[in-house]
Amino acid sequence: MEEILLGTGIGILLGTVSGIIPGVHANTLAGVLLSFQVVLLSLFGPLVLAGAMFAALITHTFVDSVPSTFLGIPDADTSLAVLPAHALCLEGNGEEAVRIAALGSACAMFIAVPISVICFFLLPALQPYFDWWIGILLIASIGYMIVSSECPGWGLALFLVSGFLGTFALRYAFMSWHTLAGGSAILMPLLTGLFGISVLITASRGILPEQHFRGIRMEGRTIMKCSLLGTIAGVAVGWLPGLSTASANGVLASLIGYDKDRRAYILATNAANTANAFIGLAALFALSRMRNGVMVALSELPLPTMSEMTVVGVLAACAAYGITIMLSRSACRFNGIDGRLLNRSVIAFIIVLTIILTGPFGVGILILATALGLVPWLVNVPRVYCMGVIMVPVILYSFGIAWM
Predict the structure, then answer these.
(1) Is residue 209 classed exposed, middle or buried when 0-12, 13-18 and 19+ CB atoms within 10 A define those classes?
(2) What is the largest CA-CA distance in the chain?
């Protein structure tokens, strides 16, 4: 038990740091820990090291809502959710947005853990039947969104162009600099340009309104419904190969609508993010498939039992919820800040971070993604169609079309 608590504590600290700092992911920290595994294994043992990696991942899924809400900087896993969260912040409801995100992640923990156990025992035998339907599921989801939209032509065009940009960026990601973030760092300028800088450029230029918290304005029935919906979406994309939480965001947008019920969408997407982390652990043990960088790092270690890792995840989730609530109270520090100055500072930080992590190639991708991200604002269509940046490469992968 001492090793579980030590590993969980270290992971909570690391996950909090990665969640607060934009552009740094738990995958990055797992890679750093893995590079020192010889020393760390001799000092702490495999349970502490593996527990720290998984606890960092779980904690990150909670805390990353803070910079997304207050600064408008998206995380690769919840890029689309930054739009309604930051919009609530601009209305003075930033603390509520963060608390809703934390609530979604907490609810997902209670639902996803038993579902993960069920998937571990029942789904491996059915896996061959699931893999082929990924592309069809995504095509059906985006097709419904485009057909039912007010501007289907623009929706289709944005989806295809963003899909081409995403496929191109991932195909030639080797041209970016490989620092601590690894090859997946190209997702940072790609998603930040589409859902971050393009939003900040068009955001209000005045003083940020006073941040106040009047409670979570959602009905209990809606909370349960969206928690369950988000968890199921996170479990689905976490178990099936080639998908990510970003794919779940696109599917949830067609079911909930991030521009219609912002609070429900924030809760559902964060539930999907946390559920994805738990089901990824089950997929590692059941199928030996790695769904994210943390699972890749864990596969290189002498793995503890799944029950031990699940306990680590639950403890980390409980602590991360409290940490996120505490951080949400910092919303008052943004009272009266010049919105123009804050936006410019955030954009400058993103550019510097892109240069450090990805070099000139990443800067080029950032410029293209930002330009494309401005199109929905110019033609007045939802930015959700830009999720083609992730969904098109996944669709191609699911049909066996080689693009990498």
Answers:
(1) middle
(2) 60
Range of the domain at 289: 2-398
Q: How far apart are CA 120 and CA 112, in angstroms?
A: 12
Q: At what angle do helices 134-147 and 152-171 cross, to 10 degrees?
A: 140
CB 205 within 8 A of CB 340: yes
CA 336 to chain centre: 29
Is 404 inside a domain boundary? no
Cα(267)–Cα(195) distance, rounded to whole angstroms? Answer: 18
Residue 22 burial (CB count, 10 A): 23
97, part of any domain = yes
pLDDT tens, N- to C-terminus, the chain (404 residues): 888 999 999 999 999 988 887 666 676 677 667 767 777 788 888 889 899 999 999 999 999 888 888 877 666 566 666 678 878 888 888 889 999 999 999 999 999 999 988 888 887 777 666 666 767 777 887 787 788 777 889 989 999 999 999 899 888 888 887 654 444 567 778 877 887 788 778 765 566 777 788 889 899 899 999 999 999 988 887 777 656 666 677 677 767 766 678 899 999 999 998 998 899 888 888 877 766 667 877 877 888 888 999 999 999 999 999 999 999 887 667 666 666 777 788 788 888 878 887 889 989 999 999 999 899 888 888 777 887 887 788 788 777 776 55
Considering its fold, how many domains does the chain have in total? 1
CB of 74 within 8 A of CB of 60? Answer: no
DSSP 8-state secondary structure symbol assigned to residue 149 = S
**Any domain includes 403:** no
Residues 69, 329: Cα–Cα separation, whole Å: 12
* Rounded distance between C-alpha atoms, residue 61 and residue 321, angstroms: 10
